[in-house]
Amino acid sequence: MPRLGELERSVMNVLWDASASLTVRDVLDALGERDLAYTTVMTVLDRLGTKQMVRRERDGRAFRYAPVLNRDEATSELLHAALDEAGTDRTAALVHFARTVDPAEARALRAALDEIESRTSE
Amino acid sequence: MTPLLLGLIGLALAAPVPALLARASWPARSPTTGVILWQSLALAAVLAISGAALSTALWLVTHDLTWWRIVLHVAIMGIGVLVWARFWWAAWHVWHETTRRRERHRELVDLLGEQHGALPAVRILAEQTPVAYCIPRRRDARVVISQGTLDALDEDALQAVLEHERAHVRTRHDLVLEAFGVLHRAFPRPLRTDAPLRQSQVLVELMADDAARKVAGDGALARAIVALAGGVTPAGALGAGSDAMVRLDRLRDAPRRQVWPGALSLTISVIVLIGPTVLLAVPWILHAWQTLTS
Fold first, then answer.
1. pLDDT-derived band at A86, boundaries 50, 70, 90
2. Cβ-based contacts of B198 with chain A (< 8 Å)
3. Contact assignment for A12 to B94 by CB distance below 8 Å
4. Residue B231: which of A100, A116, A120 has the nearest Cβ?
């Protein structure tokens, strides 16, 4: 089911936009998709739970769901991992296209670029 | 003689040879064979040092058996087993740690990033900081770029970035880096240099660049490197050390079709791998075996 990933994203956005924890029904209503089954939303919430993105709390006979990290916290964790790997990470979990350099090196890079551009435009 | 010679070869391959080779520029002219060369050196170092230990241990018990020779034999074999255990432990650790972090990162990217058609799946982060990287994986790898990257690049340069990252994912460059990461951790600190890991990181970038320039052209790739490396520097990220200049230098030199750097890399690879093993270890082990069985 390729849709499941996209659905996880939508569900997460609903939870992030909500001010309080939500029930499955709340999420289903907020998604506003007519042909979406209750059980599908439940599955998606379960999956997000095993990924430790969503926390489940009991409320009477129902469960309520809330994000473990709010949107800003999640973004910050993501960017931190993406940017902070320069020196400390030796295991190369992510492979970067290029890393930022200091101003002197940046000038040298631009000079080299001019040379390449003039050559390729000939 | 054999144990001593193997030991010397092993030590030479572990530190001074990599340090010398790291200063040479010719391996980078043919990145793929360059990676093979570094892998061969590393493997040869491991083989030679293991061979030295093993032949010492065998030598001790092929002559007259005194109690101290047996004790020493057992001690060397024991240390050997410990070193191997340490190696595999490091391997497992690196693999496990990397997989875990990638998994978490991919989940966050999927939840926060906007989908973008094209395979492997591209995700776009709504961030102004220009970033472009890939999360390698056997299946479901991700290429991640930020809005800032999209804004900083023209269409051709963006294509160069995407092709570069796809090449990383397609050819599993992460496996090369992980292998050197494992070796780096497994080697005792005084015996190792940063060279193999550093050099393989550069070579892997050059390999991906080669794929990108074929599709997008030298100019577009150079523009992309400069735009992403020479852009706004986030505080605290200064002097992180980059391969950007090496990569641009390679693009600056008009493409030279030279066979010798690749051929030289492969020749040295074969020599270091086969040389010590065949010339020294095999005759010695055969001899030791004959002495033991006769």
1. very low
2. none
3. no
4. A100
Length of chain B: 294
Q: Model confidence over B131-164: pLDDT tens digits?
A: 888 888 888 888 999 898 899 999 999 999 999 9
pLDDT at residue B173 above 80? Answer: yes
Which of A95, A105, A117, A118 to mutate against chain B (most B CBs within 10 Å)?
Answer: A95
Are B165 and B204 in contact by the 8 Å Cβ rule? The answer is no
Cβ of A87 under 8 Å from any chain B Cβ?
yes
Residue B243 scores a pLDDT above 90: no
Three-state DSSP at A93 gives coil
Q: pLDDT tens digits for A9-65?
A: 999 999 999 989 999 999 999 998 878 899 999 999 999 999 999 999 998 888 999
Could you give the number of structural domains in chain A? 1
Q: State the Cα–Cα distance between residues B83 and A6, nearest whole angstrom.
A: 47
Residues 6 or more apart in contact with residue A111 via CB below 8 angstroms: none
Query: Of B135, B112, B124, B207, which Cα lies nearest the Cα of B158?
Result: B124
**Domain map (residue ranges) of chain B:** 2-293
What is the C-alpha to C-alpha distance for residues A52 and A18, in angstroms, rounded to an integer?
18
Q: Is the CA virtual torsion B119, B124, B129, B130 positive or negative?
A: positive
A44: in domain: yes
- The C-alpha of B52 sits at a distance from chain A's nearest C-alpha, in angstroms, of 29
Q: Please state, in angstroms and rounded to a whole number, the distance separating the CA atoms of residues B100 and B92.
A: 12
Whichever domain contains A44, its CATH number is: 1.10.10.10
ipTM above 0.90, yes or no: no
Q: Looking at the partner chain, which of B102, B178, B230 has a beta carbon nearest the beta carbon of A106?
A: B230
- Reply yes or no on whether the pLDDT at B240 is more than 50: no
Task: Tell me which chain A residue has its CA closest to the CA of residue B105.
Answer: A78
Q: Given CB atoms, is A96 within the 8 Å cutoff of chain B?
A: yes
